[in-house]
Write a structure and sequence with these properties.
single chain; 357 residues; alpha/beta; Nucleotidyltransferase, domain 5; 2 domains; 5-stranded mixed β-sheet; 10 strands; globular
């Protein structure tokens, strides 16, 4: 069974071709291509939907040709086509879904609409050393630019959201604080890079809602905003000055910047690790998984692994190439759904606010 998937939920254009059998054996990823738009959006400090959708139209045909060439197959040999149907930017989702639907109709093959969050959720099981793709019960942390949530996984298609952010996602907070500091976009990798060698205990920052299963990072972001004028020795005496200062990137010397980034990053990690372990204990889980773009952070992975080991939990994380937006995880989710007898109609609409359950 060969599946071609398209992922265009935000600003990454991605196409992948996956081949798998009808049992639980691991699939073979024949080709996976991603066209990044970071350079196009960096000067704006975030994704501009119109630019993203225009670039999807430009990149998608090239990636289709490249993946087919790399996989050494003709598109007529593909058994099913899949695309991300949500959540995401409407103008971006529409392009990927339209391409996959058109191919499915043109070749008379099945079409599968895949939830982007399910792609992340299942990705830690892709590429297992034992090549067993059976989805085992676990407590999963999905942490990305747009989403931070805890999910109790019973089995494939059996999901229960037990906690989510009530305001900013972790990745969003990283991007916004990086912008305050005049760092590049996306903010997560920039803060991680500068946090290396910094003192994570230099600045006392809040860890919000530790007693709840939900997350909140807006207060942490605001705490950094009000800390910055004090760090540079400038105080806001009037509301106008406060607005002006907090909207201007601060330039800190490297040691101070390293300490602030380390302290901010550690505050986020403490919240993510504490809540994930607490949820695993509360629901008597044996396995903890993590996925999403922010889970590329090596310090987060290290501390979560250590916490799982201390508390007797098995730990799985998605490979870095499967953490950021990619089509391989969408193809993997489509393969598992096809094996389970689940499909979609080409008339199924995209949903920018699509929920996991």
């Amino acid at each position: 069974m060969t599946i071609l998937a398209v992922e265009t939920s935000c600003d990454e254009t991605a196409v992948a071709i996956l081949r798998g059998g009808d049992d639980h054996s691991g699939p073979d990823l024949l080709a996976s291509e991603v066209a990044s738009q970071i350079a196009a959006h960096e000067k704006y400090g975030g994704v501009v939907p119109e630019i993203a959708s225009r670039n999807h139209l430009l990149y998608a045909p090239r990636l289709l040709d490249r993946t087919a060439s790399t996989a050494k197959i003709d598109l007529s040999e593909v058994d099913a086509f899949a695309a991300t149907s949500g959540p995401g930017l409407a103008s971006s989702l529409m392009i990927g879904a339209s391409i996959a639907k058109g191919l499915a109709i043109g070749f008379g093959k099945p079409y599968l609409a895949i939830n982007h969050l399910e792609g992340h959720l299942l990705s830690p099981f892709f590429g297992d050393a034992d090549r067993d793709t059976e989805i085992r019960p676990n407590v999963s942390l999905i942490v990305s630019g747009g989403h931070t949530m805890l999910v109790r996984v019973h089995a494939l298609c059996g999901y229960q959201v037990i906690g989510r952010t009530v305001d900013d996602a972790a990745g969003e907070a990283l991007d916004k604080v990086a912008k305050m500091l005049g760092l590049g976009y996306p903010g997560g990798p920039e803060i991680e890079k500068r946090a290396r060698g910094g003192d994570p205990n230099r600045f006392e920052l809040p860890r919000s809602m530790l007693g709840s299963e939900n997350f909140s990072f807006s207060g942490l972001k605001t705490a950094v905003r009000y800390l910055l004028p004090k760090v540079v020795g400038r105080f806001c005496e009037t509301p106008d000055e406060e607005r002006r200062l907090t909207q201007t990137p601060y330039k800190l010397d490297e040691p101070l910047l390293a300490d602030l980034c380390a302290s901010f990053q550690q505050a986020i990690i403490d919240v993510l690790v504490t809540k994930t372990i607490a949820a695993a204990q509360r629901y008597d889980a044996d396995l903890v998984t993590v996925s999403g773009g922010v889970s590329c952070n090596q310090e987060l992975r290290r501390q979560l692994l250590e916490a799982c080991s201390r508390n007797g939990f098995e730990f799985k994380n998605a490979e870095p190439s499967l953490c950021t937006d990619n089509a391989a995880m969408i193809a993997f989710a489509a393969l598992l759904r096809l094996r389970a007898g689940s499909g979609s109609q080409v008339t199924e609409e995209i949903d920018p606010n699509l929920a996991l359950v």
